[in-house]
Design goal:
The protein is 44% helix and 18% strand. It is built from 16 helices and 13 strands. α1 runs antiparallel to α15 and α11 packs antiparallel against α12. Bound molecules: adenosine-5'-diphosphate and magnesium ion. The site of adenosine-5'-diphosphate (ADP) has 17 residues, from β7, β12 and β13.
Length: 419
């Protein structure tokens, strides 16, 4: 029997709180798992940004990545390690690089999900370049923006095709507002999307591997109150719709960690924003839900490292399209997509693994989230974001919410993996 240490790398940016908790809990778990005749233990460390030789041996088995979408050096290092050394990474960097919001709308429309009517429009302005004038004068068609707006219907949303963090998103109620918004949209390429309004619920479903957390989301609230504290608030069939949709999206694009925003209108969940493959992980926004995230992250990364999970560099879209093209009811298509997604995430194997090897996690985590380490991690994060005179009150607010989580869910009373 060999003693093997699997190494998990954290590729981090401005993250402060969640890595501290992840690292400390991993240490406290002190796992030694008998797997295939070996004794496997786990170690985590932070990935550093440095020059690299493309032929160098990789130091990690799994990397949890938070940088790919904006640090090109980290992205290229990760892609190189996957290609050369079979590294497993959350998330697939190729699909993250190329699947913007617009692409995800198109793909999920093809699968039949109720993405609201969406158009793409040419940008109002272009960066100057040598062949810009001839290209535009030959090929850019004049178009009637007002007529497109009327066709979609109001209210509608104008938003960058590759957007995030609410930047450049405008709610539009009539033709004049549409023309004004376009006028000031500059060089950004925009989508116009029919507003799902009125709606009676806004849910952000966070997926980490095959684990899903439904969060009631209040977009009008201040940042620290946007994630509401209720849990298990949706009837089972509604929760299943959101969970299935998020799981299919994440498997389809090869994203281990992503969130899907859905708005409910007359009982139907309309997905409006589901290319968020680096979701907010900070205690200052997640608060009550933060321990769920840390535990879910540990389970999935330990599973991937322990089982030497293979990175699926090629996505199997045709299998999904073959189902989409069948003449069967949409519910049957979704069930078939979910089967593919469950295969992708090895759900049965993962759940047995957690039952066999990680049953102590609930108890260890429940104790950990009452510790000074967590209190200090919250303080570090709050101090980085809030003005001096608000630090104390916000540290206590987030701490209290985590203590509420301990009372309600921490002991594993609500220990289902899926929510
Ligand atoms: N089709 C839509 N119907 C209703 N509200 C929308 C729609 N699209 C966007 N919004 C509103 O605008 C916000 C930001 O848009 P979103 O697509 O989520 O962009 P971002 O990627 O910047 O979060 C959403 O949280 C929601 O409140
Ligand atoms: Mg959004």
């Amino acid at each position: 029997m060999a003693n093997i240490t699997r190494k998990i790398g954290l590729s981090l940016g401005a993250d402060i709180c969640w890595p501290i908790c992840y690292e400390e809990l991993l240490k406290q778990l002190n796992l030694k798992l008998p797997i295939d005749g070996d004794m496997i233990s786990f170690e985590s460390s932070r990935v550093e940004i440095e020059p690299f030789d493309l032929r160098k041996q990789c130091n990690y088995d799994v990397v949890i990545d938070r940088l790919t979408h904006w640090y090109h050096i980290s992205r290229e290092w990760i892609k190189t390690e996957i290609l050369v050394n079979d590294l497993y990474v959350f998330n697939n960097p190729w699909s993250l690089q190329s699947m913007e919001k617009q692409t995800t709308y198109a793909a999920m429309m093809r699968l039949g999900f109720p993405v609201p009517d969406t158009w793409m429009i040419p940008p109002k302005r272009y960066e100057e370049s040598g062949d810009l004038r001839p290209t535009l004068s030959r090929y850019a068609k004049l178009f009637d923006l007002g007529a497109i707006g009327d066709r979609i219907g109001y209210p509608l949303y104008m938003k960058p095709y590759d957007g995030g963090a609410w930047v450049g998103v405008t709610g539009i109620h009539n033709q004049q507002e549409l023309l004004n918004a376009y006028e000031s949209s500059g060089t950004r390429v925009m989508n116009l999307q029919k507003g799902v309004e009125p709606n009676d619920a806004f849910v952000r479903c966070v997926g980490l591997g095959p684990q899903f957390r439904m969060v009631n989301y209040d977009p009008g609230a201040p940042l620290h109150d946007r994630y509401c504290m209720d849990h298990d608030f949706l009837p089972d069939d509604q929760a299943k719709q959101m969970r299935d949709m998020t799981m299919v999206i994440n498997a389809f694009f090869g994203w281990d960690f992503n969130s899907c925003e859905g708005l409910r209108q007359e009982g139907v969940w309309y997905p409006i924003d589901f290319a968020n493959a680096c979701p907010d992980s900070q205690v200052t926004s997640l608060h009550y839900h933060f321990p769920w995230l840390i535990k879910a992250n540990l389970r999935w990364s330990i599973f991937c490292a322990a089982t030497n999970r293979t990175m699926k560099t090629n996505l199997n879209w045709q299998s999904y399209f073959d189902i989409a093209d069948q003449d069967i009811p949409f519910e049957e298509k979704v069930a078939a997509y979910v089967d593919l997604a469950r295969d992708h995430f090895n759900v049965d194997e993962f759940e047995s693994f957690c039952a066999e090897h990680l049953s102590q996690l609930d108890e260890v985590a429940n104790e950990f989230f009452a510790s000074d380490t967590v209190h200090n991690a919250i303080r570090d994060k709050v101090s980085a974001l809030y003005p001096d005179d608000e630090i104390e009150s916000f540290v206590e607010l987030f701490w209290d919410r985590i203590q509420t989580w301990r009372q309600v869910e921490g002991a594993g009373v609500v220990s289902r993996i899926s929510s």
